[in-house]
Amino acid sequence: MSKNAAGARTGSEQALALYQELRGTPGGSFDDAARRLHLTPAERDECRAELTALGLLEPAGDRTSAPAAVAPDVALLRLLRHERERLENRLAETSRAHTTLETLAGPFLRAGMEPGSEVEVEIVEDRARIRRELADLTDTVRSSVHSMLTGSVRREEMPRELERDRERTARGVRVQAMYSHRVGQVPEMAQHLAERAALGVEVRLSAVVPMNMVLADENFALLPTDPHDPGSAAILARGPGLVRSYRALYDYCWYAATPYGHFDPGGHGGDGLTEQQRAALRMLASGIKDEQVARNLGVSLRTVSRLISELMQELDAASRFEAGVKAARLGLLDGEPHEPHEPASP
C-alpha cells in the first residue's frame, strides 16, 4: 500500500485498517503495523486512542509490552458489561437521591408549611369505596355536612340517610342538603325531605343544582369527575386549601336556593318570571347552549324552547339578544340570594 493511499484515509478508516492489520498478524507489534501502513506518529497515537476507547485494543500492561487486538465479540461483551455496571451505579445513585427527597418531603417539608395547608386529591372509581367514605363521615364529621344532589335519593337509601341525619344532628352537627325543584315535586321525595327537615336538616330547593357534591368540616369533598355524568369516577379531596373553593361554590348555590316548603313552582318573583325562567335566563345570558340548559334544569329541549319563548314574551323581546339586554337593564341577571344564612362556624 502506498504512503499516499494510507494518508488519504480518515482517522476512523486508519484505525480500522490498523485493527485489521493487527488481527492479520497475531502477536505482531503495534508500532510495526503502524509503520507498514505508513502512519505518522500522531496518526498512530490517534488510532491507538480510538481503538482503546472502543475496547478493540488491549492497553499495554507496561512499557515493554505492546497493545494487543481484541476480538470484536469480546470487545462488545466488555462494552455491554461496562454500560450495565455504569447503569447500575446510576440507578443506585438515583435510589439514594429518591430516598433523600422522600425524607425531605416528609416531616421536614411539612414542618415548614402552614398548618392545615396540605391537600390530597384522589380519583375513586370503586362505588363501594365511595359509599364507605360517605358512611364513615357519620363517625368522623365534627361540625358540618353540606350536600347537593341533582336527582332523587334511591328508595332503599332513604332509611339509612335518615339514620345518619339523626346521629349527626344529635351530636350538634349542622347538616345542609340541596335538591332541585323538580325533585321536590316527586311525592316520595317530598315526604323524605319533610322527614329530613323534621330531624333538623336544613333543606333547600334550587332551579339549578350543578352537580352532586358532599362537603364536610371544610376538610373533605366528594364530587364527580364529570358533573354531567353522576356515574363517573369521583374526586375525593382532603385539605382546606382546596375544599374551601368547593365550599364557596356551594354557598353561592345555597344562598340562591329557596328554603324547603317556601317554594311555589307556579309563583313569580315579583317581575313576572318564575324561578325556573330566571335560572334559564341567567344561563342563556352567559352563553350556555340550549342542550346544557336542559341538562342543568333537568328538563327536555322542548321545555327549554318553551321557556325561551315565554321569556321573550314576558320581556317583550323580538330576539334572544334583545331579551338579554332587557333582562340586564331590569337587573334580572343579578341573581340576588334568598334569605342568606351565616356560614357555619368552624
UniProtKB/TrEMBL annotation:
Protein keywords: Coiled coil
Highest taxon above the source species: Bacteria
GO biological process, one term: regulation of DNA-templated transcription
SUPFAM superfamilies assigned to the protein according to its UniProt record, in alphabetical order: C-terminal effector domain of the bipartite response regulators
SMART domains from the UniProt entry: HTH_LUXR
Keyword Nucleotidyltransferase in annotation: no
Residue ranges of every copy of the HTH luxR-type domain listed in the record: 266-331
InterPro entries noted in UniProt: Sig_transdc_resp-reg_C-effctor, TrmB-like, Tscrpt_reg_LuxR_C, WH-like_DNA-bd_sf
UniProt protein name: HTH luxR-type domain-containing protein
Source organism of this protein record: Streptomyces filamentosus (Streptomyces roseosporus)
Lineage, top ranks: Bacteria, Bacillati, Actinomycetota, Actinomycetes, Kitasatosporales
